[in-house]
Amino acid sequence: MDKHRIFTTSVASVYPHYITKAEKKGRTKEDVDTIIQWLTGYDQKALQQIIDNRTDFETFFGEAPQLNPNVSKITGVICGYRVEEMEDGLMKKIRYLDKLVDELAKGKAMEKILRK
């Protein structure tokens, strides 16, 4: 079976869309970075290297220092699918990120987005 094309898409090609989505709703690039770092365990320097190197999503999540232990608290529908019911592990992680950026753009408080 072929890989979904998002798996081989670079994080750098999607990242500006996350920022634009957040900024349209009065949030910041720093908010997006905070969410990504919370989810993956990357620090700011490592995240910038991923963007600069055009790392794909498969590598990005495969080499993530540590997926946040609270990811199981991320629930709901994104792109027509319930995140908690997704079976493909990599797709689920990508959709977690999409869901967090969506919540940010919808004005949800950062502490709720980060499941504190």
TrEMBL record:
Pfam families: DUF2200. Gene3D superfamilies: uncharacterized protein sp1917 domain. This is DUF2200 domain-containing protein. It comes from Flagellimonas pelagia.
